[in-house]
């Protein structure tokens, strides 16, 4: 069941946790916006891409994205998306991450989310519904983070070079090429890049290729086509990288989340 309610309609409720659901068509976009509450965004179908000025996060089905309050973010849907959201009040945010992160939605949490959509918005205190929401709040603090984020540099010149890469990714591009483009020494560039993103250039390049690939694979593009488009010499080398990061080959991974 999907309860089509928007956060602005319920944010006034004196409840620590509320749940909503919405169905969106392929290509639907939600313009940049913020919430007073922290949000756990998840979907049972489709792929969701969340972007902020700090980076991008890709959420396949059966995964979630934690979005802290006050963070401006935009949302893009790939495929038909059945979305569920949990909104946690600012007074209950202790121990929750202060930054965006993709998290694993366990089968247990998935069943709790389905139950939460049937809970009345103004549920009674000390009721079964209140106990369910309290249990979900505890589970929110145990969700394991997943490596499905891509930080953006603050430095405008390096950031623009990153955006150019995302428009036309190539796994064979090197730090030497980027430093020459930016008129920097390789050493200065690699130090600045790690300082700005928290990742080495090679790690960021790999992550960028992965996050470009995931929505395309989820949309049904062949692995071979995606791998060669990203500059991999063959599908096997792309599959090796994919399996090392996400623990399964592309087809197996998509089957797991489907």
TrEMBL record:
SUPFAM superfamilies assigned: Homeodomain-like, RmlC-like cupins
Record carries keyword Cell inner membrane: no
PROSITE patterns documented for this protein: HTH_ARAC_FAMILY_2
Pfam families recorded: AraC_binding, HTH_18
InterPro entries named in the record: AraC-bd (IPR003313), Homeodomain-like_sf (IPR009057), HTH_AraC (IPR018060), RmlC-like_jellyroll (IPR014710), RmlC_Cupin_sf (IPR011051), Tscrpt_reg_AraC-type_HTH (IPR020449)
Position of the signal peptide: none
GO molecular function: DNA-binding transcription factor activity; sequence-specific DNA binding
UniProt protein name: Arabinose operon regulatory protein
Native source organism of the sequence: Amantichitinum ursilacus
Classification lineage: Bacteria, Pseudomonadati, Pseudomonadota, Betaproteobacteria, Neisseriales
Gene: araC_3
């Amino acid at each position: 069941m999907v309860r089509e309610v928007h956060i602005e309609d319920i944010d006034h409720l004196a409840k620590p946790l509320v749940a909503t659901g919405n169905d969106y068509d392929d290509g639907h976009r939600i313009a940049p916006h913020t919430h007073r509450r922290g949000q756990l965004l998840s979907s049972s179908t489709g792929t969701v891409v969340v972007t902020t000025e700090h980076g991008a996060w890709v959420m396949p089905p059966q995964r979630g994205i934690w979005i802290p309050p006050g963070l401006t973010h935009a949302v893009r849907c790939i495929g038909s998306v059945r979305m569920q959201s949990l909104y946690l009040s600012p007074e209950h945010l202790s121990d929750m991450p202060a930054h965006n992160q993709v998290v694993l939605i366990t089968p247990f949490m998935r069943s709790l989310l389905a139950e939460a959509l049937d809970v009345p918005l103004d549920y009674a205190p000390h009721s079964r519904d209140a106990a369910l929401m309290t249990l979900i709040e505890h589970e929110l603090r145990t969700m394991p983070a997943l490596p499905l984020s891509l930080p953006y540099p603050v430095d405008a010149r390096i950031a623009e070079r990153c955006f150019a890469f995302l428009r036309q990714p190539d796994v064979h591009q090197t730090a030497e090429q980027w430093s020459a483009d930016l008129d920097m020494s390789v050493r200065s560039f690699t130090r600045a890049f790690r300082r700005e993103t928290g990742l080495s250039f090679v790690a960021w390049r790999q992550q960028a290729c992965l996050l470009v690939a995931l929505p395309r694979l989820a949309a049904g593009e062949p692995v071979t086509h995606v791998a060669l488009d990203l500059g991999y010499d063959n599908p096997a080398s792309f599959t090796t990288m994919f399996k090392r990061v996400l623990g399964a080959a592309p087809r197996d991974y998509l089957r797991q989340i489907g």
